[in-house]
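Reviewers asked in the last cycle whether our approach scales beyond single polypeptides. To address this, we selected a multi-component target totalling 704 residues and predicted its structure end to end. The input consisted of the following lines:
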Amino acid sequence: MLLALILLPAITGAAAFFIPSTAFRRALLVCVASAHAAMTGLAWRLDPAPALSGWLMMDDAGLLFLSITSGLFLAASVYALGYLARESKDEMTDLEEHFLFRNAPEAGFIGCLLLFLAAMTLVTVSRHFGLLWIAVEATTLVSAPLIYFHRHHRSLEATWKYLLICSVGIALALLGNFFLGVSAVSIDGGRASLVIDELLPRARSLNPAWLKAAFALMLVGYGTKMGLAPLHTWLPDAHSESPSLVSALLSGALLNCAFLGVVRIQQVCNAGGQGAFSQKALLTLGLLSVAVAAVFLVGQTDFKRLLAYSSVEHMGLLAIGFGLGQAGVFGAFFHAVNHSLVKAMLFLLAGNVLSCYGTKSIAQVRGLLRSSPGTGALWVAGFLAITGTPPFGLFFSKFIILKAAFDQGQLFVGVVLLVLLAVIFIAMATACLGMAQGSAESSAARVTGPCHWLTLVPSATLAAVALALGIGIPESLNHLLSMAARTIGGVL
Amino acid sequence: MKLDWILVLLVLGNLRLLASTRLGAKIRTVAAQGVLLGLVPLLAGMHAPGLRAAFVAVVGMTLKGVVFPWLLFRAVRETRISRDVQPYVGYSASVLIGVIGLAAMFLLSERLAPFPAGASSLLVTAALFSVFTGLFLIVSRKRAINQVLGFLVLENGVYLFGAGVMSETSLLVEVGILLDVFVAVFVMGIALFHINREFDHIETDRLSSLKN
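The resulting structure, written as structure tokens, was:
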């Protein structure tokens, strides 16, 4: 079943490059996304058997991130139907600089989307550090063409930065993998196994100096991909220039997958008695990320970049949750779920706003609630959710992380975090509420009518789920989160 | 002993990369380093190299010594450039920084001891110095092709460490890593081609319209 989860999108993705019929290709995308989501749902009930001699295995954290990825991919693929119908003209006019450009061939786009899903699935089920690395690097390579869907100079610049910065980061993570292997052989001359389940029982015998170096390199490597400051510089560019459904997947699914790399090595560090060191590093990078995000969110003029910097903030919060340990770990996992749902929804809505108003400038978008009520209402709901206003789930996950900080006597972390979150709330409120209110006539941009219903359904569904998670966590999810947190050494 | 000579050549190659202005010479240097690296897994292990090590060595040498240089030379030909533009950090300053970096890596690798059996302090130093050189080339040079070269040097350093120290990684992982690097260079090559067509030059300092 694990192999099927990976091979289904991989094979259909490769096939999609050669399918000439547009309608069939789009149908295939949605069918594969649905089948993948159904299989993932099934994995909650039956425990999938390990494959490839234990290299592929589904653990609780993996299942959690796989479910997020699969669910978001389904939402994005439904959105893609409406999006691609709109984008399938031969020549497109750039909305900002008004030159003509072409889109990349749609067959390649859909093919890469499916391969992207396959690579992310492989990340979530890898139990071997080398395989995990291969999978994370593969996600970079297949998602680069997705960012370069609109063929013009800005998206090319974004793609180049993404490709280079992430590849370099990931290369350092590979060095970290080798360091980890050395830490295993250097003392007792044992086998240099990189399988997590073989490393954990003998984690105490790992050489601490090499283990620490391995953690630092992997944190830098996977942290680059995850968008932790100061290595986040590719993130706002890639998110603002790629098609909105790709931004949604990058932010909601890919960043989590990279985070899973950090989670795995953190697990080994905790088991090896180096938890204090790794937690301090995570806490520092996390706080720095939230601070950098706050600086760039204040006065941000582009609403897709606004959402991208908000992702930096939330990745910082995940790192802080892990840095605090104990209840913070549970909070971070729950936060990952909530953030993915809400951020994907917001990016999809941003795509609607972009197509209605023809601009990414926050100042030029006015009267969203009047010109397209569906998008406008969801946009306001999304803003409330992402800034952690009750009763959305993000309120509770942020609350758990903050409470963990104060409970552990980390007053400095808690207070700084509270101040930064308040600044971010004000910055986001100024931008998002300004876009929603006013009259559409007062906006500087030409406004076309409301959006296609197909582009609204995914966002509305995601919003409903995010709201439901705030009202009550289902018992099965609560169990999964607690189990996942326990394996990393956190208890609620 | 043979291994030590290879390591010395690799370090000298890195210094040459820092000093060189001609793209062709740089590509050839990286290719030569790739071939030398292919020999490392054959010499590093404590036992005679098996079939598996030979296979990885051949694949690695073909990719790094033949395929990558060919892709890069094609990119250079298509863009009709052969000389570098003035870098952010001058060439003699680059070499000086390289030498300081080398000394720093010697100190660092002393601190990382104990090494596993079979790995020498020189090997760790050479690997870390390649990583350092690669990173430095990426940040200090302007032409996009230099950044691909820098990435390759960095990757070579990581590979050297892996091949020299971890003689027992599995085939799947090694081939997977090589495949990933191959696709990365391939995709970067395509991106280079598009950058060239779009901007009529490949200097990354012009890639700066996305800010804030």
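Chain B touches chain A through 46 residues (CB under 8 Å). We regard this as preliminary and will revisit it once experimental data from Aim 1 are available.
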